[in-house]
């Protein structure tokens, strides 16, 4: 039996998954009101140029990469609480998966938008959806290109909830700029799950 306890930070630090005794817990959102929330996340799959051309021309033996990736992204968002231990099961009201081909730097850019009206946010649902869609792309193309790699899984934007509006500044995939609070929330504490 593991008797080690993590030390909780001072109140307001953002580590809401720790109890006052330092034990891991699921955050209690009972007292929070259900409000409209939205999150958008990205993942990038880089590959050989010929691989991208095969995907765009529906030339892979496994079939339509784009349809499979969309389904995987939606399923990933829906199954997030089964994969991320302390996530709350929430009622998703919508999930959209967009795939954009980048020819200059051969890659697929995956963007997942998740929506809900609930007591907690959908950042993890959007990010898990993007990650699963990217893994599905890899699975579809690995027979011709095992060197494909997944990178830049990131939250791009979140709306709603107590912590307000967050946007990641910087545009193109591969940009290494740090996440910044959006214009509506100059005092936001990044990463505070309890206010998501």
Please, could you describe this protein's structure?
The chain is of the alpha+beta class and 196 residues long. A six-stranded antiparallel sheet has the order 2-3-1-4-5-6. It has helices at 49-56, 65-78, 80-83, 123-141, and strands at residues 35-46, 92-102, 107-118, 149-159, 166-167, 180-181. The chain is elongated, with a radius of gyration of 19 Å. It starts with 34 loop residues before the first strand and ends in a 15-residue tail after the last strand. Mean pLDDT is 83; it is low at 4-12 and 172-196. Helix 2 packs antiparallel against helix 4. The protein has a domain at 42-161: Alpha-Beta Plaits, CATH 3.30.70.640.
Number of helices: 4
User: Order of SSEs, N→C?
Assistant: EHHHEEHEEE
The separation of the N and C termini measures: 33 Å
Strand order of the largest sheet: 2-3-1-4-5-6
CATH class wording of the domain at 42-161: Alpha Beta
Low-confidence stretches: 4-12, 172-196
Radius of gyration from the alpha-carbon trace, in angstroms: 19 Å
CATH superfamily of the domain at 42-161: Molybdopterin cofactor biosynthesis C (MoaC) domain
The CATH topology of the domain at 42-161 turns out to be Alpha-Beta Plaits
**What's the mean pLDDT score?**
83
**Main beta-sheet strand count, sense and barrel state:** 6 strands, antiparallel
Percentage of residues in strands: 25-35%
Q: What is the strand tally?
A: 6
How would you describe the shape?
Answer: elongated
Structural class: alpha+beta
- Portion of residues within helices: 10-25%
- Return the CATH architecture of the domain at 42-161: 2-Layer Sandwich
């Amino acid at each position: 039996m593991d008797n080690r306890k993590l030390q909780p930070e001072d109140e307001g630090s953002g580590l809401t998954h720790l109890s006052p005794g330092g034990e891991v817990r699921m955050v209690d959102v009972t007292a929070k009101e259900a409000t409209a929330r939205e999150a958008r996340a990205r993942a990038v799959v880089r590959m050989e140029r010929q691989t991208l051309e095969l995907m765009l021309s529906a030339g892979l033996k496994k079939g339509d990469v784009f349809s499979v990736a969309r389904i995987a992204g939606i399923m990933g968002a829906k199954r997030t609480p089964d994969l991320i231990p302390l996530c709350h099961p929430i009622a998703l009201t919508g999930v959209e998966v967009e795939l954009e081909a980048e020819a200059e730097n051969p890659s697929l850019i995956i963007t997942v938008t998740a929506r809900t009206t609930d007591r907690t946010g959908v950042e993890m649902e959007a990010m898990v959806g993007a990650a699963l869609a990217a893994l599905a792309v890899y699975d579809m193309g690995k027979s011709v290109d095992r060197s494909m790699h997944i990178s830049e899984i990131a939250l791009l934007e979140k709306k709603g909830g107590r912590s307000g509006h967050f946007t990641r500044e910087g545009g193109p995939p591969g940009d290494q700029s740090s996440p910044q609070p959006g214009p509506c929330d100059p005092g936001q504490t990044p990463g505070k799950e309890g206010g998501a």
